[in-house]
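testing teh design pipeline on a random one, pls ignore if ur not involved
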């Protein structure tokens, strides 16, 4: 059974479609977090990570880097690799991230996404998302490897036995596919994609001001207006016991 997002009138929901092999998704996560630190009602914001795969048909090559793949299979000009690395690394540094794109491996992210849905059940989704990003972009780990994922999940506070059972099955596959199908319905063509309260969308790793403004707008539209009663002597009011004149 796939649980749908429901708002409880006490918080706004930010849904983030992301792929764990997308360098801009990790940067976007940091920028949203920085905006949240400036948002006075951050305790009333619920973040949900949604699955998206940039390449659903990717075959994991634990001995091939994504840069090698870009040159060999994507016809990316080799003389532009350094410019590509430098541009993204600089963006990452601006938000305190230490990227090593020369070490990132060619992997299929489906298994990692399944674990993120397990983490959602235990309210550990953000921790797991953070640790998978760090393992992939800063440590160059193979995040399609069971033992690697076990260690990352354990670090994130998940039960090792339950994680292993998920990895050895197809658990949460439907949830991942559901998120991807939902993205198609929303005509999401790239990630990260942030949807605030199912109303306001931010596409890409935008600057903190954009996220902060969107948080304020979503919260203002979501908040139930406060009822203010002006002082009176209760005259001209009818109640169960009659009317006062």
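output:
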């Amino acid at each position: 059974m796939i649980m749908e997002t429901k708002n409880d009138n006490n918080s706004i929901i930010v849904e983030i479609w992301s792929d764990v092999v997308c360098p801009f998704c990790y940067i976007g996560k940091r920028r949203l977090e920085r905006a949240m630190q400036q948002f006075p009602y951050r305790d009333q914001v619920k973040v949900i990570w949604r699955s998206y795969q940039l390449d659903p048909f990717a075959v994991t090559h634990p001995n091939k880097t994504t840069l090698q793949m870009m040159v060999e299979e994507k016809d990316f000009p080799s003389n532009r690799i350094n410019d590509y690395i430098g541009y993204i690394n600089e963006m990452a540094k601006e938000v305190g991230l230490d990227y090593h794109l020369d070490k990132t491996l060619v992997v299929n992210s489906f298994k990692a996404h399944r674990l993120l849905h397990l983490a959602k059940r235990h309210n550990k989704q953000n921790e797991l998302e953070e640790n998978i990003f760090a393992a992939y972009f800063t440590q160059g780990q193979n995040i399609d490897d069971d033992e690697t994922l076990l260690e990352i999940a354990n670090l994130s506070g998940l039960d090792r036995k339950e994680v292993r059972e998920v990895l050895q099955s197809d658990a949460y596959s439907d949830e991942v596919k559901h998120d991807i199908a939902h993205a198609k319905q929303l005509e999401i063509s790239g990630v990260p994609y942030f949807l605030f309260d199912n109303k306001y969308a931010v596409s890409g790793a935008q600057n903190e001001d954009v996220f902060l403004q969107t948080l304020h707008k979503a919260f203002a539209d979501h908040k139930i207006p406060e009822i203010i009663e002006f002082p009176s002597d209760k005259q001209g009011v009818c109640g169960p016991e009659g009317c006062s004149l």
